[in-house]
Amino acid sequence: MRDLDEDPAKEPFPYDAVSLGRAVAAARQAAGLTLDGLAARSGVSRRMIVDIEQGRKSSTVKTLHAIAHAVSVPLGTLAESACGHDISAIRPASPTTP
Fold first, then answer.
1. Taken in order 91, 93, 95, 98, is the CA torsion positive or negative?
2. Distance between CA atoms of residues 84 and 21, nearest Å
3. Cβ–Cβ contacts within 10 Å for residue 64, how many?
4. Is the whole model's pTM more than 0.85, yes or no?
């Protein structure tokens, strides 16, 4: 249990690039997109998508937002995966009606 006097800002934040990469790959596949298709739809280079999916590169929020939008998955869903949350049931979001 953590001491209440400890500063939570001094603790390292959890970040798992491999989990994020798996979530991006799962979202891309669920959307029926190839790497080239996601690159074209998102405006993110194919090379960057490969590096993110393989956990070799971290993504900026802007890049992750472009990918999330392209695969119709909420940005928060992909972001949660980088914190180690299980999002194994990832699917494109259904369109909302006004």
1. positive
2. 11
3. 21
4. no
Q: Which residue in this structure is represented by tokens 């939570």?
A: 8
Cα separations (Å) of 32 from 17, 35, 79, 91? 23, 10, 21, 11
Residue 3 to residue 81: CA distance in whole angstroms: 27
Structure tokens at 29: 């596949």
> Which token pair is 7?
């500063």
Per-residue pLDDT of the chain (98 residues; tens, 9 = 90+): 444 455 555 656 677 888 899 999 999 999 999 999 999 999 999 999 999 999 999 889 999 999 999 999 999 888 888 776 555 555 555 554 44
Q: Which residues contact 82 (CB under 8 A, 6 or more apart)?
A: 15, 16, 17, 19, 20, 23
DSSP state, residue 6: S
